[in-house]
Amino acid sequence: MGIASAALALSATACGKSSTESGSGSDSKATKAAIAYDIGGRGDQSFNDAAYAGLKRAQEELGAKIAEGEPSDGEGDADKVQRLTALARAGNNPVIGVGFAYAPAIEKVAKQYPKTTFGLIDDTSKTGDNIANLVFNEEQGSYLAGVAAAKASKTGTVGFIGGVEVPLIKKFEAGFAQGVKDTNPKAKVLTQYLTQPPNFDGFSKPDLGKAAAQGQLDKGADVIYAAAGLAGAGAIEAAASDGKWAIGVDSDQYNQVGLSKYKEHILTSVTKDVADSVFNLIKSVKDGKPQSGEVRYGLAADGVGLADSNPAYKKMTDVIAAVDKAKKDIVDGKITVKTAP
After folding, report:
1. Strands 131-136 and 95-97, how do they pair?
2. What is the arrangement of strands in the sheet containing 245-250, beginning at the earlier edge strand?
3. Across residues 258-270, what is the average pLDDT?
4. Which of 78, 93, 98, 94 has its CA nearest to residue 15?
5. How many distinct helices (H) and strands (E) make up the chain?
6. How many C-alpha atoms does 47 have within 13 Å on its Cβ side?
7. Are 143 and 179 in contact (CB under 8 A)?
8. Which pLDDT band holds residue 260 (cuts at 50, 70, 90)?
9. Buried b (16+ CB within 10 A) or exposed e, 63-86
10. What are phi and psi of 198, to 5 degrees?
């Protein structure tokens, strides 16, 4: 991900670092859009960076003036309320919370700013006329990853690493395990979660992902899929160092600069079109028709999918054929993917 060419104005606040960037014009009526990042912040090579890509696209294509809010380690809901309030008070519309952890804060702040549209990614528990719930069928993309893992594995043992054991990440696990078993009923799926709520370090500490992945490698896993945010980078490092396959998540991690030294071992990535969801929400506000309620991105419209950037993956014709068939069967309703293990 490139560094923005516009000047950054940084300021430390009680609720984490924040920054603002100017849009491409000086029109005071220009759309102003803001993102409040999830655990790990921008630079996680995954979830947050995908959201930033949508924000940056809005700046470039819509002339939007953009602002960002970074989280602090161990912060609570009060900190998120403060961050969202500051972004809304500054005139940003929409204000987007990246991740389900923002749900309680958005519910509160959205009531205080009824004319501002709030985007809540990965959560439908909090609703309102000015709240757009941007959600994805992660289990469908993860099913495809399970198919690919089962076909690519030589040992018959694969691993799943979840950052924090919450319902959202259980969707990733459920889809992956189902895809593996449907492809190879004899395959073994090793599953490990890094932390339990309220400890969310499993989304932010690469060393935890690295240690978990090493433990699975030691048990014979030769393909490891981690849905763990920044911690997933550690899992990718471990798999690559052992000469085994890793499967990325949220962004096409093969193309992430921060993971370039490991990319030859990133077989594929389960992608969520977070970038488009962010851009589409900003555009809807700019067009005067703000999205609200559930806005779902699934496999049928490529809202989730499986990346094919790795040249090695493109040569695996049997894997690709199996994945393509599975995708068609899901879209056609022949396969129903579970959302819980």
Report:
1. unpaired
2. 188-195, 157-164, 223-227, 245-250, 266-272, 304-306
3. 97
4. 78
5. 10, 14
6. 26
7. yes
8. very high
9. ebbbbbbbbbeebeeebbbbbbbb
10. -85, 10
Measure the CA–CA gap between 331 and 336, rounded to whole angstroms. 9
Residue 104's Cβ-count burial label (10 Å; 0-12, 13-18, 19+) is middle
Question: With bands split at pLDDT 50, 70 and 90, how would you rate the model's confidence at 73?
Answer: confident
Mean pLDDT confidence for 251-277: 96
- Band of residue 6 on the pLDDT scale cut at 50, 70, 90: very low
Domains parsed from the chain with CATH numbers: 9-136+274-297 (3.40.50.2300), 138-272+310-331 (3.40.50.2300)
What CA–CA distance (Å, rounded) separates 21 from 188? 48
Largest CA-CA distance found in the chain, in angstroms, rounded: 62
Q: Retrieve residue 86's tokens.
A: 């500051």
pLDDT at residue 7 greater than cutoff 50: no
Confidence check: pLDDT of 24 > 90 = no
In total, the chain counts a number of residues equal to 341
What's the average model confidence in pLDDT over 128-136? 97
Is the pLDDT reported for residue 129 higher than 50?
yes
Please give the torsion angle defined by the CA atoms of residues 327, 159, 170 and 301, in that order, rounded to the nearest 10 degrees: -20
18 pLDDT above the threshold of 60? no
**Distance, CA of 301 to CA of 315 (rounded, Å):** 25
- Of residues 278, 264, 341, 273, the one with CA closest to residue 304: 273
